[in-house]
Amino acid sequence: MYVVRWQLQARFGHLKDVQNVLRQWEFDVGQRVGWKASSIRVLQGMLGSSSSAVELETRAESLADLESSWADMERSPHHQEAMRSLERFIVSGSDSWSVYKVIDLFEAD
User: Fold this and answer.
1) CATH number at 2-101
2) Share of the chain above pLDDT 90, in %
3) 12-56, pLDDT tens digit by residue?
4) Are the C-beta atoms of residues 32 and 76 closer than 8 Å to each other?
5) Is 109 exposed, middle or buried (0-12, 13-18, 19+ CB in 10 A)?
6) Nearest-angstrom CA–CA distance, 101 and 63
């Protein structure tokens, strides 16, 4: 299992605009590439991070699933439209993806 985070930096005064674009993106793109709404969450920086830091987080069962989702995104006209919309509201070049492998500390019974 992997945790996948898309990190963005909202321009000053545009946090709500970023949230609105991500909300529409989740409906138009996220669900269509297989990401369940219940597995997506959006985080905003609070302590130790800028309040304009935004992360969209989801999970992927395998790296192959993640790569398939990314490929589907790139082919989606909705994704391209959302990226054009988002461009006005985020700091240019601030978006990045991070992938974390989930480590089980204890064996399941």
Assistant:
1) 3.30.70.100
2) 44
3) 999 999 999 988 888 888 888 878 777 889 999 989 888 899 999
4) yes
5) exposed
6) 10
